[in-house]
Amino acid sequence: MYKRNTLNNLASTYGALGDHKKELELEEKVYALRCEVLGENHSDTLSVLGDMAYIYVELEDWRKAYLLFEKLYTGFCEKMGETHPNTLAIKQIVDDCREKSQ
């Protein structure tokens, strides 16, 4: 648990410093750990998936952002339902990223 939180905090620090590639590298490790321990659809795991998607937005890699937001949307649909306000917000982001990736 502490390793995941420490890596996540360190990733956030790199992001605040503008080093999004290093931030992404650490977030990918956190995501893998959370998938292993908590499962792919746990809210903490989905949170990291969203963080990674936003990093790709910062990097203007719309295709990768789209793919991760789409996966996040699927997780939100399963967890909270398609009509939950957070799910609907993610759906809008998915649509925006899809448009920008084309």
Question: What brief labels describe this structure?
Answer:
5 helices, 0% strand, mainly alpha, 102 residues, Serine Threonine Protein Phosphatase 5, Tetratricopeptide repeat
Structural description of this entry:
The chain is mainly α and 102 residues long. The protein has one domain: Tetratricopeptide repeat domain (Serine Threonine Protein Phosphatase 5, Tetratricopeptide repeat), CATH 1.25.40. It contains five helices and no strands. It has helices at 2-16, 20-38, 43-58, 62-80, 85-101. The model has no long low-confidence stretch (mean pLDDT 93).
Oligomer: single chain
- Measured as a percent range, the helix fraction is over 70%
Q: What's the level 1 CATH class?
A: Mainly Alpha
Total domain modules:
1
Instruction: Flag low-confidence runs.
Output: none
Biggest β-sheet description: none
- The CATH topology is what? Serine Threonine Protein Phosphatase 5, Tetratricopeptide repeat
Q: From the coordinates shown, what is the CATH architecture?
A: Alpha Horseshoe
Principal-axis shape: flat
- Rounded radius of gyration (Å): 13 Å
Give the count of helical stretches. Answer: 5
| CATH homology group | Tetratricopeptide repeat domain
Structural class: mainly alpha
What is the H-and-E element order? Answer: HHHHH
**Can you give the mean pLDDT?**
93
Distance between the termini: 39 Å
Percentage of residues in DSSP E strands: under 5%
- Total number of beta strands: 0
